[in-house]
Structures are given as structure tokens and as C-alpha cells.
Write a structure and sequence with these properties.
alpha+beta, DNA Polymerase III, Chain A, domain 2, 3 domains, 13-stranded antiparallel β-sheet, eight-stranded antiparallel β-sheet, 6 helices
Length: 373
């Protein structure tokens, strides 16, 4: 095997694939990337047996072949080179030689026979979404996905299509994010749970693509496949039952407060500096035209801020976990948000002001914390 390739082309693809590379050393071959050189391109494959990526990049192939190499070692070597083009060739043994200008490396290889077989998908019955739209949906739900291994069904996001309406939902039991959007009658019904890691890797690939372009989603048995330009991301689905999220959406939250998101984000970020594992409560006190935000920590101190708001009803206080509130505010991009509450013991329903501009119906719910004093 011998080929020449633009260093940045290979590095860009490697960077996107590193997220699925197995890092626990349970199977040494899973720390490798499979490289196939043919037809003046490289076919690159990586998988941890749950999630995988297939990609390609142009190359000048002098002698076709295939091999696997340790992905992190290859990435580190390429990062030390400065010239634009790198030459790869197999020597008489099992070493792969890399030459870039006057620099040379040799890297140990393993046979592709030991590399896991990669599932295939023809995308014959694929559904298509716009890159920018779906990337925005992932951003709005990913931070609410549970990372608790004991909550298996919550370790991913529900993707549901019913009667032409898309729902993307995530929850960790303390907060919940729900995205709804009308798609039209041509979309087939779905009810699946996509793992958190898969959403993270999909988000990375979508960020490198034109937001106006489309990408495809299809299914083969218990796997989901995403085709984004020259890349295919595939993953096993979570085999579990997602809870009935409709029951967790509060009704009767009659007090609506409109707030500048960026200003509140800066205030809550300051509060987070004083928070600790034992002191996560941030108190929001609403009164006509003004809110007061307070976080007290007996060991670290106290922080108080005031902010002008759009609100004309009676005064009400509510407490939330400062980390949950901060994550929500950080992941939104609108100028203003609306907080809907009922009383100090009610869930907070967070919505986006002027979200009709995006075509999304987005709701975020945070459970309250008990107020003292």
C-alpha cells in the first residue's frame, strides 16, 4: 500500500472520528482506524462496536491496500508535521512509513482481518432533514440527557415522528427538553431512542456541514444510520421504553416573566462561582418590573443581582439548581426567554420568545428546589 495525501484533509477526518475510538483498551483493535486506499481516495472506518463512522478523503493512490493503525498515534504524528503533503507506504514488515518533507515516522499496524465488520446501509428508504435545523434540535436537547448508567432508557434522546410531527425529547429526571416541529404527512412514524454519544458525534459532523444542505437518516434492524456528505455515522439504538413525557409538562403556570437571556446568563454564571455540591440553590425573586437573583453559600459567601424584567403580577419566589439553569441559558441563542411558574413549589417552564421565527416549539422544564428562609 502506498499513497500521498494532503495532511489537513486526513487530520480533519481523524479529528471527527476520534470520538468513537475505544479508549478503554478492552479490545486493542478498537483503538485503531481502518484505512483502505483505492480509486484515488482513502476510506476510513472507526467503531467502538456501539457507534461507528465511515468517511473518505481524496488521495493519490500509487498502490491499493488496507491496514489498521492506532488512531491517536497517527493523529499525534501528523500534528508534528508542517508540510502540506504526507506520503504513506508499507515496508516489508508490519510497519507503515510516513514521510513529510525531511521528517519520517514509522507506525505499527494490525491486519484488517481483526477489525470489526462494518454494517452497511443503502439509504433506500431514508428520510431527510436540513443540517442546520437538526443541529439546532440536538443543541436544545443534548444537555438534558441523563448520564446515569442506571437510567438506561434516559441515556439518549427520544426521536418520535407521529402524524407528521417531529418530537425530540430528553430528560435526566430533574429537567427535560422537548422540541416539536410539524414536518408534513410524507414522514414515516418513528419511536426510537438515540444514545447520547451518537448525538454528540452527529452534532460534530453537522457542525462541519453547510447548514442549508440536507442529510439522510435510515434504519437497518436495531441500528440508525446518518449520511452527512461523504460521511456515514451509524449506531445501535437504545432498547428501552422512554417515559410518557407529556405528563411532566406543567399546566396552569399562569405567571409569565420575560427576561433578557444574555443578561440572566451572566448573572447565573457569577452565581455558579459560589456554588458547591452542597449549595446549588439559586433563588429567583420576581416582582413587577424586577427580579432579584440570590445564591448563598455558608462556606464561600453570597451573591446578589438585580435585573429588569417584563412582569406585572404579584411577587413570587422560586428556586432552581444553578447548574441546570446555567446549562439551559448557555445552550440557547435567542435574545429573550419566558419563564412560566405557578408558585414556589411549581416546575419552571422555560420557553423562547419569538421562537416562531425558527419554526420550533421548544419547552424546557426544571424541577424546583425547596426554598428556606
Amino acid at each position: 500500500m502506498e499513497f500521498h495525501i494532503v495532511r489537513s484533509d486526513l487530520l480533519n477526518e481523524l479529528q471527527l472520528m476520534m470520538g468513537v475510538i475505544e479508549k478503554k483498551n478492552t479490545m486493542p483493535i478498537l483503538a485503531n482506524i481502518c484505512i483502505k486506499a483505492e480509486n484515488n481516495q482513502l476510506i476510513l472506518q472507526a467503531t467502538d462496536l456501539e457507534v461507528g463512522i465511515i468517511s473518505s478523503c481524496p488521495a493519490q493512490v500509487l498502490e491499493p491496500g488496507e491496514i489498521t493503525v492506532h488512531a491517536k498515534n497517527l493523529q499525534d504524528m501528523l500534528n508534528t508535521f508542517s508540510d502540506a503533503q504526507v506520503s504513506f507506504s508499507m515496508n516489508e514488515g508490519t510497519m507503515l512509513d510516513l514521510v513529510c518533507g525531511s521528517a519520517q515516522f514509522s507506525i505499527e499496524t494490525m491486519s484488517t482481518q481483526d477489525f470489526p465488520s462494518i454494517p452497511e446501509c443503502e439509504f433506500a428508504s431514508a428520510i431527510e432533514f436540513q443540517v442546520g435545523f437538526f443541529k439546532d434540535c440536538i443543541t436544545k436537547v443534548l444537555f438534558s440527557v441523563s448520564t446515569d448508567p442506571h437510567k438506561y432508557a434516559l441515556n439518549g434522546s427520544l426521536l418520535k415522528v407521529n402524524s407528521g410531527e417531529l418530537s425530540l425529547v430528553s430528560t435526566d429526571g430533574h429537567r427535560m427538553s422537548v422540541v416539536n416541529k410539524a414536518l408534513g404527512p410524507d414522514f414515516q412514524d418513528l419511536d426510537i431512542i438515540i444514545p447520547r454519544k451518537t448525538l454528540l458525534e452527529l452534532q460534530k459532523s453537522l457542525k462541519t456541514s453547510d447548514p442549508e444542505e440536507g442529510f439522510q437518516i435510515d434504519f437497518v434492524e436495531n441500528r440508525i444510520f446518518f449520511k452527512i456528505g461523504p460521511r456515514v455515522l451509524f449506531s445501535r439504538l437504545i432498547d428501552g421504553k422512554f417515559p410518557d413525557y407529556h405528563k411532566a409538562i406543567p399546566v396552569g403556570n399562569d405567571k409569565a416573566i420575560v427576561i433578557d437571556r444574555v443578561k440572566l446568563f451572566e448573572i447565573v454564571r457569577r452565581k455558579s462561582v459560589l456554588s458547591s455540591d452542597k449549595s446549588k440553590l439559586v433563588r429567583l425573586s420576581f416582582s413587577p418590573g424586577e427580579m432579584v437573583v440570590v445564591l448563598k453559600n455558608a462556606e464561600r459567601g453570597e451573591s446578589i443581582d438585580k435585573l429588569a424584567i417584563e412582569y406585572e403580577m404579584e411577587a413570587v419566589d422560586v428556586g432552581f439548581n444553578v447548574d441546570y439553569l446555567l446549562e439551559y441559558l448557555k445552550n440557547m441563542s435567542v435574545e429573550k426567554i419566558e419563564i412560566n411558574i405557578k408558585d414556589h413549589a411549581s416546575q419552571g417552564l422555560f420557553q423562547l420568545v419569538n421562537e416562531e421565527d425558527t419554526g420550533l416549539d421548544y419547552k424546557h422544564i426544571i424541577m424546583p428546589m425547596r426554598l428556606t428562609g
